[in-house]
Amino acid sequence: MKKKSFSIFLTTLLTFSVMLSACSGGNSSNSSKESKDPVSTNEGNKAAVVEAEGPTEIKIMLPLNTSETPPDTIKTEVEKITNTKLTYQFFPADTYEEKLNTSLATGSLPQVVYLKNQTTFVQMKESIKDGQFWEIGPYMSEFPNLSKLKPEILNNTKVDGKLYSLYIGRPLARQGIIYRKDWADKLGLSAPKNVDELFKMAKAFTEQDPDGNGIKDTIGVVDRNELIYGAFKTVSSWFGTPNTWGEQDGQLAPEFTFSQYVDTMDFFKKLREGGYMNQDFAATSKTDAVNMFTSGKAGLYIGGSMQDIDSLNKDLIKNVPDAVLDTHSMVAGPDGKITQWMIPGYNNVALFPKTAVKDEAELKKILAYFDKMMTPEVSNLMYWGIEGIHYTVEDGKAKAGDDKELIEREVKGYKDSVIGEAETNGMYQPYNVLPGRIHAEELLLENVKFGVADPTAALDSATYTSKGVELQQIITDATYNYIYGQLDKAGFEKQVESWKSRGGAQIIEEYNAAR
Amino acid sequence: MQEVTAQPNAAPQLKIKKPQRSSELKKRIWRNKWLYVMLTPGVLYFIIFKYFPMYGLIISFQDYKPYKGIMGSEWVGLQHFQRLFTEADFLNILSNTLILFGMNLLFYFPVPIILALMLNELRGTFFKRFFQTLVYIPHFMSWVIIVSISFVMVTMDGGIINELLTYFGFEKVNFLLSPGWFRPMYIIQIIWREAGWGTIIYLASIAAIDPGLYEAARMDGAGRLRQIWHITLPAIRGVIVTLFILKIGSVLDLGFEHVYLLLNSMNREVAEIIDTYVYTAGMRQGKFSYSTAIGFFKSIIGLIMVMAVNKISKKMGEEGVY
Q1: pTM score, two decimals?
Q2: Which residue of A has its CA nearest to B48?
Q3: Which residue has the higher pLDDT, A457 or A210?
């Protein structure tokens, strides 16, 4: 009897302890199916070192811009070609910074870590300087394909003059307008040549019933709660505001100290007060903004990548079958000059943590994988998918298949992780069908002629690294408050002063010293 | 785990002379062994998830560098606490937190009690059940869903409420982006989501009241309201006080998610609370030591509050939580 009860007791205990450990392991809600518990990162590496001849095991974490984790279709093919055993851990882009920071804090980063964007890269700089990541500069020459990466862009990603990362290339200036050409034609408007015409177009789209349903239910511009990748920065650059930092009396100064920045704020204030844009844009998410556009309610989508026209068009014609979209950029400012802000040529980077990559030999194996990624065979596979299923080749270019949902599901996750760009990794250029997209590709090349780079891209400021993002919040809030009429010009100036007194002045000093 | 398992088996073989008391204790433990077994998971839960993580508080006195670990990081004393108290926004954030908490106490706390009394007055089991279920269902929706539903209703870009306002000839109201509307929206959403769920405990304690009391009161000619006032409320007073004390303990803990979803550039001056501030500093900007220090500060305030309120309630002759 006693024995029996004791065994019951043990069983109960065991059950509870299993339950407890199960609970504690289940904190990463959307790690991919094949990824084991993300907390244990070092098991695979040891094995890889022992069996040097077998496939290299690589664990990679990266942000996911779609709603579901892609299946292994593409991954399996890549593994075959590159003789690797890959574990891609996808995490939703929305909460990726958190995932990154918690993994960093607990020392559980995998061997390859993609960041999210340039802002996260700035935040990582402190850890990079602390020596938490491998410097890869010295090894680059050993890999013929990695050596093709553009030196000017690599320079933009250097920290203290050393290279730690591989970049994911993007066109320098892809921002512009995607607009309803059918509305413009109906109202007899041509694409806006300058900011005044842009304003007039937004007004006309709101007031002149462009969808012809007899109800005043349309707006001009649709924007979202984002100053950089929303409409604000692109329009500010047309007004002649410098790209993040600019020269004033021979000194570098932040963009919001320039009069053009205030002009841009006035532009948006007028736009909103007139009802020519969505009133709640400061609280509107990207999804909601896109939905507003694709439901046929708004006529101008500004600031996103003009290459997004394909996906916007796909959803718009479901709702409005005879809608026609076109792209446009190079809008002149009040003084007739055209300027267009440029990104530093990359939108994300991959880093290699020392906690997971134990030695040089292992690092070289991982770099070898990326070297193979920069061959047309692998980069096409990861960027376009499998030929005949996800795309076909026409005139030596890749034409995406008709099943956009399938491409979104199986390829998009990997597409955003391909390093380099078509010129360096040899993947196919896109074969475009949509006239607006073909136009967009021409505009991309034209834009660069008027391009303005961020002069601080390759400069370093310790204060900016530690406090810049936090301080930027002051300016972001002040900008919205000004547009919504809660702050006047004096109030805005006061916030700029507050930015300076809380560390901004040091940032200005450090950047000017670093030149 | 060890001490619990060792006790029952060790009993027979050990024949060391021990004072009477300990063998008495062993007997008692052995007799109630199943109660101890049932206690184990709870104790383990607190040890593993509540006590063990306290080790991590160490990093609030350090300049914590993840790759150096807790052992290898540099000690900086109270630097992070100093930074918090000298932060320009600190007073603003603290007062926002306290105001929201005060409103929560004032407008939300009584609602479940009133609702429970109302539900209790319903005659007919079916109706009672039906309404009770109806009011507590929202609790199972996440904040994301509730805030999204509110967004769709109150947005100026075609939200139903603003459409109605225009229809009746009023001006549109900017619910989402004006500092004045943040607090009312916050409270309304909390009441909508949590009030029904909060009634459960009160209803249970009302159900335990001796019906004889009501009968006697009716004989004495007490009406419905009199019965509530003289019987129901005094009977659940203890529960109300206990829940009130527990609520006070979470004075600086308003639940991060809900506020964070409502937060934007326009209402930050009233909507930034300690929880959202910690999240931004810690999770999004990776200042682990600093955000741990804030969390530590928060816990201490909570502890002090609970102890104070507990003392007061004991003075008033109530039970208290310990």
Answers
A1: 0.83
A2: A20
A3: A210
